[in-house]
Structure formats: C-alpha cells, structure tokens
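Hi,

I'm pasting everything inline rather than attaching a file, because the server keeps stripping attachments. The sequence lines come first, and each chain or strand is labelled.
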Amino acid sequence: QKEVEQNSGPLSVPEGAIASLNCTYSDRGSQSFFWYRQYSGKSPELIMFIYSNGDKEDGRFTAQLNKASQYVSLLIRDSQPSDSATYLCAGWNNNDMRFGAGTRLTVKP
Amino acid sequence: DAGVTQSPTHLIKTRGQHVTLRCSPISGHKSVSWYQQVLGQGPQFIFQYYEKEERGRGNFPDRFSARQFPNYSSELNVNALLLGDSALYLCATRRQPTGDIQYFGAGTRLSVL
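And the predicted assembly:
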C-alpha cells in the first residue's frame, strides 16, 4: 500500500463547475498536508496546506482534512481552463514529504 | 528575492556515467531536500540536508549522494547512471527542517541513454 494515494483520474469537469480531488494516507504520524499543482514539464507549485481537522479556504480553493479517516481533499470552485493540471497531494512527517502519484484535472471550456 | 535555482536545466548522459546537479536555496532557507520525479508519478524523496548535515534519506541506492555547503547550496551526485535514473530532479528548500513550507525549484531534466 502506498503511503499517499490519490484517485488516479483523469478528472474532467466543465468550466465553472466544482472539481473534487481526494487523497488518503496511511501514516498516522503525518503532521501536515499539502496540495501542489503541477503543469506539464514544470515543477510543483504550492496551492494550500492544512494541518488541523476541518476546512481551510483560500479563494476558490478549499482543503479538507479528516485525521480520523486519514483523508484529505481539495475542492476547486468555479473551475477555469487554467486550472487544468496535475494535482499532487503530499503528507509531511518529520524529515520528509511523501507524495501521491497525482490526479490529472482537465477543465473544458 | 530569487527563488530556488537549479542547474543545469537539462542534461543528457549515457549509462555508467556520473552526474552532479546543483541547487541554490531561497535566501534565508537553510534546509534543502531532493526529489526524483519519474514521468507519471509523484516526486519521491531522496535526501534532506540542514546545516550541512543529512537529516533524512529516502529509499534510494548508495549511488545517490548529496552534500550541503556553508552557503546552504547543495549538490546531488549520482554515480553509475542507469536508464531508470532518467527523471526530473527537484530541489526544494525551506527555512527550517520541519514545520515550514517548502518551495520547489524548476528542476533538472536528466535523460540517460
């Protein structure tokens, strides 16, 4: 079992819709969680981080963390074609960060 | 302030050769981590260095080594290259080794032929 697993996708949503990205993790020692966006051929770009149970909102993005269920999600409201990218979920535990394989999102105009 | 800078941006090597990748952190960042990202996968942790000492190591063979210099820049060395070492190598830096956001450089694309 991988330490961080993401729904493999690809995920396709129409412009203006809500995109929902999910992630589960196996290491209960993970202290904080990150969502990165990665465009093809580019390096990961931090979107949000969360370390407390509940929701955290930043503009069109909402991250949700449920430590009891070992579940992290990212909601993107009013999706735009420019949101089309691979989204990486990562968990941080002391000295290293473990990434999922990523979910490819396509937002169709 | 300049972001995390990596060099070179692209590199082509043949099997058995050695390669050195370089990373300069954001000013004030003392922790450097290295990741390998194979096409279609998420980044895999290789090393973390803080104050010139290794703080963490991922599941990579001894052909991979790294070091950090007094100015907090870092080098990743890979010996006896294999075809499977072809990947995007990412450097990420943060102010402290834990409890802080890390920022990625643009990466070095290594192709082993």
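The two ends of chain A are 36 Å apart (CA to CA).

If the labels don't parse on your end, tell me and I'll reformat.
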